[in-house]
Amino acid sequence: MTTPPILLQVAQLACERDERCLFSGLQFSVRAGEIWHIKGPNGSGKTSLLRQLAGLLPVDKGDISFPTEKSLLYIGHKLALKEQLTANENLAWLSALSTPSTEQQRYSALAKVGLRGFEETLVAHLSAGQKRRVALARLHLQTAPLWLLDEPLTAMDQEGIKDQQGWFSEHLEKGGAMVFTSHQDLTLDGVKVIDLSTLEEARV
Question: Which of 151, 149, 85, 140 lies closest to 114, judged by CA?
């Protein structure tokens, strides 16, 4: 059986903020078909780690590499949605930053996240969970193999979490990979865990 390729390699990574070391000596590899859960208490560096992986924060020490190609989609905890725009309009400008989309593609993506009929609703009129669904609709518009998701389960009800797990599983089956932060656990098999409070890896 062929070993899946490594999409992301992290070696002896460290992160400092305000002269305080959040973590150091972090080392792991993410292969195609894998999902990694970054855990830790508030202030432990979960978001900082994801932003380092996405190239949005400098690397204080260590190395981050992409052995195959650097093709990733990062969705932060702050959703970057414009309240005065509709769900469709938000997706249009967000996708234009990397891969422009057609209106038909955006409507299809919104339908996949349970927002059929809300395409032309102002984001200001959506609930917190619906706003997160708009942001996560980008997962269905781009083909990046590596997903970096910061707190994707926040404000989602049980049905929403179940839907997300279906999207995640489908992505992994297609050879993608995912690294995410959350205070909640997924019920998917084979999730690998990095706990920044101990820097110990475990399989759950």
Answer: 140
